[in-house]
């Protein structure tokens, strides 16, 4: 029997589950048998199968079914307790996250048509399925945050933990690198911009002649989330939207339409609905450029000139990244790319790294900057970037001096695991849990007890 109710594995998988996005693609398995019930929430056999398949898709060995089931049950317990404790996520936050993920998927597949064909479901069905998943994931995240927000780690705790590791058991750390980049997005060609502008002007003229803006937005807007609501974006606080959009919207009177506005998302036609104090309510029609036919000439020229200035020490790389990089995720950190798993500035230099990045670093020396390179951001946008090979840490036996951040992360994970474990000891007595007899041997939460009060 396990010594803790929540295993470390379950916590690790849970953290991955609540940040992932998944649909049952194409002609996937249809295993709708309920294998666990937690209050008003269910775990289906297809959930377990889909989680196992996700490991295969990433070329990773899947854990045992009992471990996967425990992580899925943990997720549902979090949701059940969130309901009991009145923990909620605002609809607008869920909608924004859902729209972002749907837009990303459309860009990854190239078009809505390709996405529909890949999954064998309509956009409406995919959105409905996605919204439910996103809501559950965000509720799980918020509940975890509520449990672990107060967890802190002191230097003394890190030192004590490290000193407690036998010298002959200290882990061997493989070679790691710290790298940064400066990204410039590809630009819309004049031809594309003019085509999108003409199409939006034609739609504007149709509204001016009496057609309904909302109906046209539903039919033509490429903002998947708002299009289904007639382009309605709901109330937004000042500073919430990109500056180009907000500046144009706030110049309008109710029911008035803007000129054609360009932002990082594409070209917009905006109609203001209402202003209420510090908030405004608008709808829009968005047309996006074809991201596979963008102009890379200007970004390459810009980065080539910037590279010359950095090499001449006229400007520091970190300052240039903050001022000029268009990758919002890294610009404020001076362009440093953090490891997605550990959030550390150092990441392993091995073949699990992106292949192109790995091969590029293999040709570079520490302290050098690459030539401008074609690049694609996680949201599918085409770009060019400069890579900066800031430092390399050779393979070594772990030490407190060189690996403090890693050790601190381990201590933090252990403390969070303990906090959640203590929380679950109380939570499982507050919810009804029933596991199908087929999985009774899994001993969920390390106990023979599978039912709540």
UniProtKB/TrEMBL annotation:
InterPro entries cross-referenced by the UniProt entry: OMP_Chaperone_SurA, PPIase_dom_sf, PPIase_PpiC, PPIase_PpiC_CS, Trigger_fact/SurA_dom_sf
UniProt KW Isomerase keyword = yes
Q: What is its EC number?
A: 5.2.1.8
Q: Which SUPFAM superfamilies match?
A: FKBP-like (SSF54534), Triger factor/SurA peptide-binding domain-like (SSF109998)
Q: Which GO terms describe its molecular function?
A: peptidyl-prolyl cis-trans isomerase activity
Q: Which Pfam families does its entry note?
A: Rotamase (PF00639)
Keywords (alphabetical) are: Isomerase, Rotamase, Signal
Signal peptide annotation: 1-26
Q: What sequence ranges are listed for the domain PpiC?
A: 174-274, 277-374
The protein's name: Peptidylprolyl isomerase
From the broadest rank down, the organism's phylogenetic lineage runs:
Bacteria, Pseudomonadati, Bacteroidota, Cytophagia, Cytophagales
